[in-house]
Amino acid sequence: MFAQTFVNGLLLGGVYGVATIGFSMVWGVMGIINLAHGAYIMMGAYFSYMLASRLGIDPFVSMPLVMAALFCVGFTVQHLLLNPVMRTSVLLTLAMTFGLELFLVDLFVALFTSDIRSVNTSYSSQALAVGPVLISYVRLAAALLSLTLAAFLYLVLTRTRLGQAILATALDREAARLMGIFPERIYNYTAGIGAALAGAAGSLASTLFPISPGLGNSFIGAVFVITVLGGIGSVTGAVAAGFVYALIQSFAASYLGVNYQEIVAFGLFLAILIVRPQGLFGKRFFGEV
Question: What stretches pass through the bilayer (predicted)?
Answer without folding.
Answer: 6-27, 63-82, 89-114, 134-157, 186-209, 221-248, 255-275
